[in-house]
Fold each of these.
Amino acid sequence: MSRIGSEGEDIIGRWSEEKLDLLANYLKAYSDIMSNQKTSNNPTGKPWLRAYYYIDAFAGSVRPRAKADEERYVEGSPLRALQTEPHFDGYWFIDVSPRRIERVERLRGEFPDCVIDVRQGNCNEVLCNEIVPQLSYASKQRAFVFLDPYGLQVDWETVRELANTRTCDIFVNFSVMGVTRLLPRDQSPDPEVVAQLSKVMGSTEWINQIYQIPTEYQLDLFGNQESSPNRETIRAEWLASLYTEQLKSLFPHVSRPVLMRNSTNSVLYALCLASHNQTASRITNEIFNRYERLKDLGR
C-alpha cells in the first residue's frame, strides 16, 4: 500500500521497491523461456506457442516516488514489464482510478513498438469478462498476471477463473495486513467480515479453528506486545502459508511465500507465484532465496 504525494503520485516504501525488483527478476526469466517456446519446434514442425502477454491488474503506479528520498522516482510495475526483453507480445494494464489510467495511457507514446491495451474498471470484472475469454487453452497463448492489490480487492473467484484457463501464471501480493485488521482478538468476527474474507480467500473454515482453540494458543497466533508492537495480528507466516495452501487447490505448482515487511518489520504482504508449470515455481523459489540471503547479509 502506498500513500499519495502532493502532486497525486504514489509514494512507496523500501519493501515495495524490493517487491518490484523481485517482479523484474521473474519477468526476465519468464520472457526468456516463453520467447524460446515461440521459436522451438515440436514434432509437428511448428512452435506450440503463438503469443504471451503481461497483465497488470493494478497498473496505475507508473513512476512512484521513494518514501526515503522523495526526490527519487521508482520504476513501477508497468515500466518493469515494458522494459523486459525479450518483449511480451502484448500488455494489458488495468486500474480503477481515472487518474492512474491517465498515467498508464501515456506509456503508449513512450513505447510505440509495444502493443498496449489499457482498461479502466474493477480488475475482477475486467479479467473475468474481457481478458480470460481470450486466453483459452486452445488459443496457444500464455499470460503472466500480476495481482498487486492495495488491500483485499482480488476476489477468490477471479483467481479461480485465471487458474481454470491453464494458460495463466499469477504473481500475487496477498494482503496479510488487510486480513489481520479485520479479525478481532477476543471474539469471533461478525458475519459481514466472514463473508468478506470468504470472498477473498475462498474459505473461512480456518477462522472457526482459530476461535475454538485454547486461549493460550490464540495468544500465540495473534502475537504479543513484543512481536507485534503496532497491532495484534495473526502470525504472518501462518496466514501466508494458509493462502498458498488455498492456491494449491487451484494451481498444481505454487512457490513458497516471501514476506514483505515495512520499516518496523511488520508484515504487510506475502508474495508468491502460482503456475501450471513446475519450472515456474522452482525459478521463483530460487529468486526468493537469493533475495532473503541478501536481506540477511544486510542486517
Amino acid sequence: MAVFQHTLKKKVEFSGIGLHTGERVSVKVSPAPAGSGLLIRRSDLGASYIPCTYKHVLSTSHATTVGSGGWSVSTVEHLLAALSGLGVDNAYIDVEGPEVPAMDGSAAPFVYGIQGVGLRLQRSPRRCIELKEEVVVASGGGVVCLEPANHFSISVEIDFPHPAIERQHYAAKVNSKVFRNEIAKARTFGFLREVEWLRSQGLALGGSLENAVVVGDEGVLNGDGLRFDDEFVRHKALDLIGDLALLGAPIKAKVTAVKSGHALHHRVAKALMESAPSWDYSLSPAIEFPSMAPAGGEIPAQVATA
C-alpha cells in the first residue's frame, strides 16, 4: 500500500528571539507542491529558495546553519525536527532574519503550530532512504552509526562531568506520536560558567531561562525544573532528528549516537549520501500521523496561523 507525501494545509508563522543572535526574528512555513521537499530562504533579503539539505550546511558550530549565495539561516534544527517528526515532506520556509526563533528552546511550539493548521495529503508516493550497509563516523570521542533497519529508531547517549547530567541514555522507535510526546518538548541546555565565553564569541546573545535549561554549579537554575528527568539526552535526540532531516528524505535505519553533536551529524549525513553503494531510495513504510489537535496546552502566543 502506497504511503503518500504530506504538506501543511495552510501557512503558520512563528516569531521570537534568536537564541544566538538575540535579534527579533520570524519564520513562515507554508504548503508546497508534492516533490518539493523542504525549501528555505531569507525572505528579508529577497533570496531564492534552496533545498534544506546537507549540501547547503555552512556551519555546525553550536547550531546548524544553512545558506547559499552570501546569506544564511542558523539554528534550523528544531524546526526541521518538528517538520520531520510530524511527517511533513514538502514546505516553503521563509525566514525574516538570520536565525530561526528559539521559542522555548524546544520543538514543542513548532509542533503546536503545525498541528494547529493540520496536514494535507498529496497524491504522490513518499520515498525514503534505505540503507544497504552500515555507515559510521567518529571524531573527538563521539560516534554516529547508521545500520540498515526496517524502520527509523535512535539510541542516543551523552556523558557530561556534572552531577545534574552525568551519563544519560535514550532510545526509541521514532514515529510522530513518540516524537511529539517524548522528544519535542526537550529544551536546549547550557552551562552558566560558559555563558560569558559564548557571548564573547557572539553566541547565546538571546539565551535566557525562558528558552534554555541553564545548569549552574549547584544544578538546574530554571525555577520550573526539568520537563523530563533525562531532558538533556532527549534534547540531543531532538537535535539528531533535526540534523538528519537534512538528508532530504526519511531514513529507515537504526541510528546510534554517542557523545555526538551537529558537526558529527552533518558528517554522517554527508558520508552516507556521498557513498552510492550504501543506500538507495525505496517507498516509505507505513507511518503513523498524529491527531492534528494541539498536543496539550495552549498554542503559544508566538505562533500565528493563517
Amino acid sequence: MIEVQNVTKSFDTLRAVDSISFSVRPGEIFGLIGPNGAGKSTTIRMIMNIIAPDSGTILFNGKPLSESDKNLIGYLPEERGLYKKMKVKDLLLFLAEIKEADRSMTAQRIENWLLRFGLQDWKNRKIEELSKGMAQKVQFIGTIIHDPPVLLFDEPFSGLDPISQNLMLEVFLELKNAGKTIIFSTHIMDHAERICERILLINKGKSVLSGSLSDIKSRFGTNTVQIEFDGDGSFIEKLPYIKTARTFPRWTEVELSDPDMVNNLYQDLAGKIRVRRFELIEPSLHSIFVRLVGHTDEEATNA
C-alpha cells in the first residue's frame, strides 16, 4: 500500500534521512522506531508529501500521493496544531468536513469517540481549556474521525498518562481489526513491541534493522534472562559473563556473553537476593534497541 524506495533528505549539511526503504502492507501496524532525531518525523512528512525527498520514490497504492489521496489518510503530526478558541465538538466537525466526510455520520462518530476517551463532558469547552493529555486525545480523534483506511501517527502517545496510553494501544488494535493500515513512529520500544507486526529501526537517518518482530527477536538469540527479585541486585551487572544489563530496583534484564552461563548466573544469585522469577527469554525490543543504537531513548538528543 505504501512503498518508500531509497529515499534521502538533507537539510543544509544534515542528512536527515539516508537511503531509507520499506513497505507497509494493507491492514498491518507498522512501527517506525528510533531515538529522537533519527529521521522518523522527516520520513512521515515525506510520505504525506509535506516535504519532498531529495531522491528516491514514495508510492501510495502504486503511484505518487495526490491531493485527493490525502482524504484517504489520517495524519497526526508530532507538532500539535489545534485551534485553541474553537469548541471541541465544533473542531472535530470541522476536521471531518475538510476531509469531505458525511456530516450526519460524523456527528454520531464524534459522540462515540468522545465517550470512549472520557471527553463527553468537554465537548462544548474550548481547546485552550483542555489539559495537554486531553488535547492530545482530541487531536487523535480528529485524525480518525473521517474513517480513513490509512493512518499515520507521529509520536501519538506524547503527553498521555499510562492509563490513556493503554487505551490508545487498545484503539490501535481495534482499528487494525477494522482493516485499517497504520504507521506510527515512536522512541518508546515497549509500545512498538506490544502492537507492531513489523518495524523499521532507524538511527541518524539510516536503516539499522527491519522485519517482523518474531524474526528480529529470534535473530538475536535466547541469551537473555529476566530476573525479578527482592534485595540489592546491583552486583548482577558486574558479573564477568554479563554482556549488558537493564537494571531497576526489583527487576533486571541481562544479556549473557554465552547462553551456557545461565546456570552460573542462577548459582551466583543464590544467597544474595530473593529470586521471585528467573526466565530465559528472547530479548526485548528495548534491549535490542540499546544494543544496536548504543544508548537509551532517554539519552537520545532532540534534533
